[in-house]
User: What shape does this take?
Amino acid sequence: MIHVHRYPSPKTFLIVALLSLPIVLASLLQAEDKAGPPPHPVSFQKHVLNADSRFETAGIGDIDGDGKKDVMCGGFWYVAPDWQPHRVGTIEESSGYHNDFANHLQDVDGDGDLDVISVTWFSQEILWRENPGAKGGDWPTHTIDKPGNVETALFADLSGDGVDDIVPNIMGEVAWYEYMKDPAGGPKWIKHTAGQEGAGHGIGVGDVNQDGQWDIICPKGWYEVKKENSQFTYRWHAEFDLGSTSVPILAHDVNEDGQMDLIWGYGHDYGLFWAEQRQEDSKRTWTIHVIDKSWSQPHCLLLADLDGDCRAELITGKRYWAHNGNDPGENDPRCIYYYSFTPKSVSWTRHTIDEGTTAAFGLLSAADDIDGDGDIDLACPGKSGLYVFENLRIKK
Assistant: This one.
């Protein structure tokens, strides 16, 4: 049984056999408490898909419909199980970055195959690329909107219709794009604007107040989202200041007390943290705890059950050369870790997936059962290559 966080519905806690999303949030079904860390660390085997790749985002899904999960990364997709590259198209590179800041695989046009949704910083777009299928060739690009600079994006079912919507990290506003099927044919996107109070580096989605509706989490507070019929309202709560955060800010009941906590890192500095939510005299408070401050640039965070204990592990790593040498610790060794949490002792244990090699965690890594053996593997892109880390917990 496979357990990975994603955002299908705030009422769905345990997800079995995740199929697409690299950013996998919400709350996991709670397992029984344990006196110590997992009985054995999970081992991984590294596979080099492309040591020369400089694209920083990846997605996982069955792109060619052969029943095997492939990896999408920028201008190419890689066919499982031998990882031969296939061209998607030319993506501009400027100032040390490819203009491709998300790779979410989803059947956008309803034709039965997976397309890819992306966002851009330089051209300030939200877009999708259409899978050409058997005819091959470059994937046609379709612009959804041009809202301004977009750092990256989350993909979550905010509308509650069972299909992922787009939650981009726009610098000037907080908004999301509801996916709908256009009666005239093809996809239709409806923009919903929450406000400008929360705009900044970092965004997350989670049911903060446990009312059954996804809320939007920002570095300096959160939007309480309410839905009546097809209309959405947004109430701003300026309850904390997390700094310049990772994308995503994770919402997860870390200490299993029934309150939704937050996990984030400083995407361009040292530090990985969690904020404990408490209720005191009918008032919500947040207490910040340090997880790890020994390495820098934890820009992307994932939650997934790597060791099979029905409790989510925190997975993250260094976004290598995120600001082209200008961030603190940019030249420190690259690293990918997972952290397990023990509620009884309120402590985190760090486990090494990879350290001191060319592999890093990029802007948007992905978690899924790539090889179909029943455990969660990782696809890790970055400016120093594209890698798959095969979870060896379950032997084929």
